[in-house]
TrEMBL record:
Coiled coil (UniProt feature): none
Gene source species: Enterococcus termitis
Pfam family, one: CHAP
Gene3D superfamilies for this protein: endopeptidase domain like (from Nostoc punctiforme) (3.90.1720.10)
Domain DUF5776 as annotated: residue spans: 140-209, 219-289, 300-370, 381-451, 462-532
Annotated protein name in UniProt: Peptidase C51 domain-containing protein
Upper classification of the organism: Bacteria, Bacillati, Bacillota, Bacilli, Lactobacillales
Length: 535
């Protein structure tokens, strides 16, 4: 048959052992949960209740009471069962009196995947719920070939796209490209798929791939999770898989700098690249990086926790101040319990993880400073930039520094329901409530009771953000700064010729949300793309 590998769902794999109950009533990361999931996914058989007790030691008795055969004859897809040993495993292959089993939580307490060969007699029985056909498909690799080389150009598929329905997500790769294979999955029709070191899927069809020597032995072929530099090096953009465009920001990190690795990808010729927690790429060459065994990441959030709150008074740092050398932004501190929404990660020059907030500022990821936030605030607010919103209720704008909305609406002006606004960024109140920054630089509530996503076409026809410099496509004039609705006519009834240029220093909007350009002399100019063009 086939050694499938660790196909246990990540939603359970990443929990603590016994951290939840699975779909069949088994505790997660136990041997019983792994086998129940494998039976469901591969054998298309689901454990039922009653019986209510499915501890590993009673699987044999339960199966017999339900009418299923339990004997000493192993077959592919059967369940190896130990009574006194309190263990069950899934049978992957039977050969010459030996049985290849796949299992979880052996040794007990590990909560991890394992596979091993055992003597066929070293069990209390084999349970035959719904065994698999033993006739293999000679056109496919059904046992992990270790490494393969493409015989024809092909691509890689998503980790869960076992039926190859969604098209290649990485590639195409040329014939001759090699890939390290860490396991095998099966399609819904039972067709083997190769699981690459990155977790992407590759065809197992022998007309497209052939077994080869170890792919890239001098590189990390599977995720090492934590690495440190063995030589000075830097990071590359997420899309620069061939490392052609130089280091991000031309920044180099010193030997010994650690990085937390969240996955693997490949360059165009199949060389593995490490994906860091910031989303940037790092070399996987073992001459450049080695496994990091230090304790830094124990004390920091190494991956995005999404929502955090302060455990101690602290503040935010500017986006480029990764070493926290320049002090808090505006010297502002936030109280214990203030929540922040996290949109990404970066790192200091020494590798310390930093959290990127929805406002674009940096926050410490030290677990002594922040912890995961479990409150409901972000349920009721847009926590990240929705880009375009419209009012659900009459409301207005606040000045840029009035994050707590204490000073009232600007000019006491309110806008009607349905008025759209273009959003260019986010900030937060002193208590952590998200605020929207409009293209005019003013603040707007992000409460979902006040605004909703705008799906209209207005901003397609207007410049919603500052184009910097424009010129007229048709003769037109400028308007007084307060005449946002263009009701009072052009200043001095003057029009400017086609091609006349203007420097734009800011944006505002009409009472109905139509963008207006603010020129460097303080007048207003149309932002309509049929009237002006950026150049």
């Amino acid at each position: 048959m086939v050694l499938i590998g660790d196909d246990y769902p990540s939603k359970w794999k990443n929990l603590p052992i016994n951290g939840a109950v699975d779909s069949w009533g088994m505790y997660t990361r136990q041997c019983t949960s792994f086998v129940a999931n494998r039976l469901s996914v591969v054998n298309k058989f689901n454990i039922s209740r009653p019986p209510s007790n499915w501890n590993a030691n009673v699987w044999g008795q339960n199966a017999q009471s339900m009418g299923y055969k339990v004997d000493k004859n192993p077959s592919v897809g059967s369940v190896a069962w130990w009574n006194a040993g309190f263990h069950v495993a899934w049978v992957a292959e039977v050969k010459n009196g030996q049985v290849l089993i796949e299992e979880y939580n052996n040794p007990a307490g590990s909560g991890r995947y394992n596979n091993r060969w055992i003597n066929s007699n070293n069990v209390d029985g084999y349970i035959h719920f719904k065994d698999l056909p033993t006739t293999g498909n000679s056109n496919y690799y059904e046992v992990n070939p270790g490494s393969v080389m493409l015989k024809k150009a092909d691509g890689l598929y998503g980790a869960n796209d076992v039926d190859f329905k969604n098209g290649a997500v990485l590639g195409t790769f040329a014939a001759g490209t090699k890939f390290f294979i860490q396991g095998i999955k099966k399609s819904s029709a039972g067709i083997p798929r190769l699981v690459t070191g990155s977790g992407h899927l590759l065809t197992a069809n022998k007309s497209l791939v052939e077994q080869c020597d170890l792919a890239f032995p001098n590189y990390f072929n599977v995720n090492p999770v934590q690495v440190e530099l063995q030589t000075e090096d830097g990071l590359y953009a997420a899309t620069d898989r061939d490392f052609k465009n130089g280091l991000v920001g031309n920044v180099k990190y010193k030997k010994g700098t650690p990085f937390y690795i969240t996955g693997l990808t490949y360059n165009s010729t199949g060389y593995p690249r490490l994906i860091t927690s910031s989303g940037h790429l790092l070399s996987s060459n073992k001459a450049v990086v080695k496994v990091y065994s230090g304790s830094m990441f124990t004390n920091y959030f190494a991956t995005n926790p999404v929502k955090v709150e302060l455990k101690t008074t602290d503040g935010l740092y500017s986006r480029n101040d990764v070493d926290f050398k320049n002090g808090l932004v505006n010297n502002k501190t936030y109280n214990v319990g203030t929540p922040f929404y996290i949109v990404g990660m970066t790192q200091s020059s020494s590798g310390h993880p930093r959290l990127i907030t929805s406002s674009g500022h940096l926050l410490s990821s030290n677990k002594a400073v922040v912890k995961v936030y479990s409150g409901a605030m972000f349920t009721n607010y847009f926590a990240t930039n929705p880009v375009k919103v419209e009012l659900k209720t009459t409301d207005g704008l606040y000045s840029r520094d009035d994050v707590d909305f204490k000073n009232g609406l600007i000019n006491n002006k309110t806008y009607n329901v349905g008025t759209p606004f273009y959003i260019v960024g986010m900030t937060q109140s002193s208590s952590g409530h998200p605020r929207l920054i409009t293209s005019s630089g003013h603040l707007l509530s992000s409460n979902k009771a006040v605004v909703k996503v705008y799906s209209g076409m207005l901003f397609n026809n207007y410049y919603p953000t500052n184009p910097g410099r424009v010129r007229l496509k048709v003769a037109d004039g400028v308007y007084a700064r307060e005449d946002v609705d263009f009701k009072n006519g052009c200043m001095d009834n003057k029009t400017y010729d086609v091609g006349t240029s203007f420097i734009i220093i800011g944006m505002t909007q009409s009472s109905t949300g139509i963008p207006r350009l603010i020129t460097n002399n303080g007048y207003l100019l149309s932002a309509n793309k049929s009237i002006v063009e950026a150049y």
